[in-house]
Amino acid sequence: MNATVRIFDGLFIFLAVLGIGYGYLTGTSRTGVEWVGTTAFILSAGLSLLIGGYLRFVARRISTLPEDYEEAEVSDGAGELGFFSPHSLWPFMMAFSIFIIGYGAAFWNWWVIIGGAIALIITVCGLVFEYHWGREKH
Q1: Staple 116 to which of 2, 59, 66, 100, CB 3.0 to 4.6 Å?
Q2: Which residues form the signal peptide (predicted)?
């Protein structure tokens, strides 16, 4: 996990320096600062920092992974990767909700955006609590 954290930290530094340099260099041109590119670089740096921070937080709670060893073999990473629901419709319904939000944003229909956002909240809750609903077992 430490290698992945270092990758995202390096990406953050690279994108932040690139964004600042891009904003400065376009600001010295005759047309002024090009805000779209500058914003894109700065937001990308922020997203890299967000992912790196999350990975750093998770790395403290888990043991060292095979990716962190210099002499690790491929077989060291073998085994169960986690539980993935084989029959869940919630990811499809979440994607459809996001599609509805994007459709509403494209045509700027606020009522479609609100309906898609409500559908997204419901489908996210359905995905998260999929295996926690049911009859109480006391």
Answers
A1: 100
A2: none
